[in-house]
Known about the structure:
GO biological process, one term: diaminopimelate biosynthetic process
Oligomer: single chain
Protein name: Amidohydrolase
Distance between the termini: 6 Å
Mean pLDDT: 97
CATH architecture of the largest domain: 3-Layer(aba) Sandwich
Number of domains: 2
GO molecular function: metal ion binding; N-acetyldiaminopimelate deacetylase activity
Amino acid sequence: MTLQDLIEKYSAYQIEMRRYFHQHPEESTKEVKTAERIREELDKAEIPWRVCGMGTGTLARIEGKLPGKTIMLRGDIDALSVTEKTGLPFASENEGVMHACGHDCHISMLLTAARMLNDVRDQIKGTVLLAFQPAEEIGRGAQSMIAEGALDGVDACFGMHVWADYPAGTVGIRKGPTMASGDKFTITVKGKSTHGAQPHHGTDALVMAASIVMNLQTMVSREFSPIDTAVVTVGKLTSGTRFNVVAGDAVMEGTTRTFSKEIRDSFAERITRIAKCTAEAMRGTAEVNYEYLVPVTTNDPKICDLAAEAVTKIFGEGKVVEAEQTMGGEDFAYYQEKIPGAMVFLGIRNPACNAVYPQHHMCYTVDESVLVKGAALHTQTALNFLGAELK
């Protein structure tokens, strides 16, 4: 059976699965029904699996006829707290939850790849693991799977993300640092509430918080080299009770991004210093909680080359593009800290089917026609790594 035979055989299955998971999204750590359907599909194909990661993660295993190396293919399964506005006939049935980052595509491509690989397992030398990973959006799923043995005996890993920045039918690949680290910070400001007409009797936490937000912006412009890349964003600020009351407290939540381990390691101290000193200068206090979520996604050159060869075989010449670095983060990076791996970007942008919106947008959708080739890319990359050729 050739790769083209597999693509034709599973094209309809790929779309069926994608639409099912798109219609039934579940948030991080709550992917119960998603996991049930994944396991049901694996059982239908007689592919063995075990629970791995937070109870909703699933690790499937396809053994080749001959012994050899082991590669793990990964697809994340969680959705976002976004209200869908696509108008698609298979739009989300779960109010306020949507696969707005394409994880429905990742699940269905990995399930399709599982069937493809299972069909040709007698030609495989080695083992392919398929990791259906929970909780990527909160940066916790990969660590949970690693803790439960997902990487035991594994030699390499490969992941794929559908990506709206690239035209459908192209694949973005970049060697080395590709996706930034992504962490979260929370700043709690304490002041003293009073009547809005008598601000001198209180200590305005809202003004302190606003000042902290502005002062944090000078960190990137004045504390780091202009050559380095870093982002500090305060995405949420909650303060105050009504229009004529000076706020007694405020809470801010934000994120940091960088490609530098040294800068990442310095963020907590810098944010704490700026927040505390700003609040103290205005007669208040500030406390900072810094959470390390995901490290830098760093692609192994050899795995990238194997993936590029697979892209050319499946999509044709000229379909590999050099991916730009993105400040988006991925907990796939935790696998790469343990073993060589690559995360590539499958282009799904196509104005003809309204696939023009960025990740996390309420109208996000994809060009479904390329997804079965994405499944084939999983398959061929695994075969390339294991040194197997389809007859």
